[in-house]
Specification:
The chain has 57 residues and is an all-alpha fold. The protein has one domain (3-55). Helix content is 88%, strand content 0%. It contains 2 helices and no strands. Helix 1 runs antiparallel to helix 2. The chain is elongated.
Length: 57
C-alpha cells in the first residue's frame, strides 16, 4: 500500500468513527422508535464500513 493510499484509509477510518459517534448521540436524543431504528441501522452500516477499512491495514 502506498503512503497516499494509507492516508486515504486513515482518513476514511476517522470519518466512519465520527459518523458512528454522531449516530450514537442522535439515537440517545430520539423518541420516535422508527427514527431510532433507522439511525441504528445507519450506525451499523458505518461500523461495517469502519471494519472494512480497518481490514485493509
Amino acid at each position: 500500500m502506498t503512503s497516499k493510499e494509507l492516508l486515504y484509509v486513515e482518513d476514511a477510518l476517522g470519518h466512519e468513527q465520527y459518523f458512528q459517534t454522531q449516530c450514537c448521540e442522535t439515537i440517545n436524543k430520539l423518541q420516535d422508535p422508527e427514527l431510532r431504528s433507522f439511525v441504528q441501522q445507519l450506525q451499523q452500516a458505518h461500523q461495517t464500513l469502519f471494519q472494512n477499512f480497518y481490514g485493509l491495514l
